[in-house]
């Protein structure tokens, strides 16, 4: 089972007075579907209400790799039905958006302002950052231990050089972590981020 570097018992606080908290499991359930990620991404970047028809056409265009105006009415309706019957009610119940079925609109709730959404993995390798740092700590411990005891190849350089190596390794890792976390966060970039645990989208997921 792939780790996420996040304790699933932990709860995400949302800015809704007196309302429920969104758990990590509920958050990842919402993010497990690309259509729902597209909706969240759009709402984070929009200040007004979003029309479901427009949203459906955008998603259909993305899935079929077509221009917005090239989407057929049948494909748009297919996505519209899935959003209206499944995805939007699920997200409304979770409190991350307000779905007005009568008007055919959705809008963000204050919850989106407080939720930092990103997949905490080393991109392309699916390694949790927690495991990465644990491994790096072990390597640094071996290097500094060997340098202190002047064992084998570690005796070729002074201890100060190995300490400098450890500092640089930690600094580079921290900067990389910050960069990838920012790139994977919803709302960054022109399109919804794809998850390393991407699931095939389903009509009624």
Structural description of this entry:
Residues 1-20 are annotated as: Disordered. The chain crosses the membrane at residues 132-149, 155-175. Residues 28-107 form the DUF7344 domain. By secondary structure, the protein is mainly alpha-helical. It has 2 domains: 11-116, Arc Repressor Mutant, subunit A, CATH 1.10.10; 121-183. The chain has 7 helices and 7 strands. It has helices at 24-31, 34-45, 52-64, 73-94, 111-114, 129-148, 159-184, and strands at residues 11-12, 22-23, 50-51, 97-100, 105-108, 121-122, 127-128.
Kindly list the characteristics that best describe this protein:
Arc Repressor Mutant, subunit A, two-stranded antiparallel sheet, 205 residues, elongated, 2 domains
Shape: elongated
Distance between the termini: 21 Å
Instruction: Just give the CATH class of the largest domain.
Output: Mainly Alpha
The major sheet is characterized as: 3 strands, antiparallel
Order of helices and strands: EEHHEHHEEHEEHH
> Based on helices, strands and strand pairing, what is the structural class?
mainly alpha
Query: Care to count the β-strands?
Result: 7
Specify the CATH architecture of the largest domain: Orthogonal Bundle
**What is the strand arrangement across the widest sheet?**
3-5-4
Average pLDDT score:
77
Low-confidence stretches: 1-19, 121-125, 195-205
Question: What fold name goes in the CATH topology slot of the largest domain?
Answer: Arc Repressor Mutant, subunit A
The figure for the number of domains is: 2
How much helix is in the residues?
40-55%
Strand content: 5-15%
Gyration radius, in Å: 22 Å
Count of alpha/pi helices: 7
């Amino acid at each position: 089972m792939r780790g996420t570097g996040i304790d699933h018992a932990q709860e995400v606080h949302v800015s809704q007075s007196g309302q429920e908290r969104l758990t990590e499991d509920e958050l990842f359930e919402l993010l497990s579907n690309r259509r729902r990620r597209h909706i969240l991404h759009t709402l984070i970047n929009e200040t007004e209400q979003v029309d479901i028809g427009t949203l459906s056409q955008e998603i259909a265009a993305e899935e079929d790799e077509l221009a917005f105006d090239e989407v057929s009415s049948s494909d748009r309706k297919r996505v519209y039905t899935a959003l209206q019957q499944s995805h939007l009610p699920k997200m409304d119940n979770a409190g991350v958006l307000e779905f007005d079925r009568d008007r055919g609109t959705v809008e963000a709730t204050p919850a989106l302002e407080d939720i930092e959404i990103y997949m905490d993995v080393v991109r392309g390798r699916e390694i949790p950052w927690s495991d990465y740092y644990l491994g790096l700590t072990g390597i640094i411990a071996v290097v500094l231990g060997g340098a202190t005891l002047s064992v084998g190849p570690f005796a070729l350089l002074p201890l100060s050089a190995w300490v400098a190596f450890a500092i640089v390794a930690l600094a580079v890792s921290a900067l990389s972590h910050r960069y990838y976390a920012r790139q994977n966060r919803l709302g960054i970039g022109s399109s919804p981020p794809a998850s390393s645990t991407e699931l095939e989208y389903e009509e009624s997921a």
